[in-house]
Amino acid sequence: MNLGNIRIVLVNPRYGGNIGSACRAMSNMGMSDLALVAPRQFNMREARRMACHAQAILDARKEFRTLPEAVADCSLVMVTTARKGLYRQHARSPREWAPLAVSATDTGRVALVFGREESGLTNEEIAIGTQIIQIPTFHENPSLNVAQAVMICCYEIFVASGQYEPPVEKSPEAPSGLRERMFGLWEKALAEIGFFKDDNEKHMMLGLRRILSRGPLTVDDVKILMGIARQTLWACGVSRREPVGSGRTRAGPNHAKGGAASGGGSSAARAAADRMRSS
After folding, report:
1. How many DSSP H helices and E strands does the chain contain?
2. Contact 185, 230 (CB under 8 A)
3. What's the pLDDT at 168?
4. What value does the mean pLDDT take over residues 217-232?
5. pLDDT tens-digit profile of 161-207?
6. Is-contact 207 213, C-beta < 8 A?
7. What is the spatial distance between Cα 3 and Cα 158, in angstroms, rounded to a whole number?
8. Nearest to 10 by CA among 120, 123, 129
């Protein structure tokens, strides 16, 4: 796989902004070979402005008089179209063609050809292609800006190349034993604030398990949830001291100065739970 063997070909481009934006899209996806076929007089200043951090691609562009000249050294020529018709009926999406494009870069060049801003590619230009690409779009407005089309095709090829590595979660997934300790703490804390009513404890805990099992929980996730439960128990006066690492030094609501328990914190917590349930 060699993304350097992907050539982006713009046929008869008109606007410098589109050319520059295409350069930026190429750079974003690790490609650098740009060819312009019979470019019209375009605003170079606008092109350089839109080629953010990709001016080197613009400066290294190749210009050709005709499309056959631009793709003469390419083993695959993938042409793009938004229209349907007799000569375009074998079109596939960029995602479908991307694996073929990636594998072909091992042995030769692959051209992705994009048409004019106002009219796309002609039937004669489509006929030069070995594959036809059609980007799926809403039928009432199927035509894309050329730089947008370049970005979509380059993105699909980059993903198919396998170079993208999704970020790895630093904290490992929580083991079953740690999760069960968390649920035990939550059950105790919810009981203490009077959350359970009419013997619905089992039902509510099953609901809580269902909510927290919709996605994987990491060790850090579970520690945070356990910390919330411990803090609740401390606020209710069940725990003798505030959880380690909380960063708070004041006495809990159920611990009067001098160590005498007032008993008010637990009642206040229960009252708050009742208000939440009735609202």
Report:
1. 11, 6
2. yes
3. 81
4. 94
5. 998 888 887 899 999 999 999 999 999 999 999 999 888 899 999 99
6. no
7. 8
8. 120
* Band of pLDDT at residue 271, cut at 50, 70 and 90: low
d(CA 147, CA 86): 26
What is the rounded CA–CA span in Å between residue 162 and residue 142?
A: 29
What is the predicted pLDDT for the residue at 238?
Answer: 76
Which residues have CB under 8 Å from 141's CB, separation 6+? none
Q: Which domains does the chain have, with CATH numbers?
A: 3-160 (3.40.1280.10), 176-278 (no CATH)
Name which of 10, 8, 21 is nearest 50 in CA terms: 21
Residue 78 bridge partners (DSSP) = 112, 131
Give the CA count within 13 Å in the CB-facing half-sphere of 277. Answer: 13
Give long-range contacts, CB 8 A cutoff, 24+ apart: 139-145.
142/82, 143/82, 144/82, 145/18, 145/117
**Secondary structure element (H or E) that encloses residue 204, with its range:** helix 201-212
CB atoms within 10 A of CB 190: 18
Per the structure block, which two tokens stand in for 123? 């039937």
Enter the tokens of residue 102: 């990636």
- Residue 96, number of CB atoms within 10 A of its CB: 13
Give me the helix-helix angle, 219-235 and 264-278, nearest 10°: 120
Nearest in space to 111 (alpha carbons), one of 18, 23, 5, 2? 5
Q: Over 50: is that where the pLDDT of 111 sits?
A: yes
pLDDT band, residue 274 (cuts 50/70/90): low
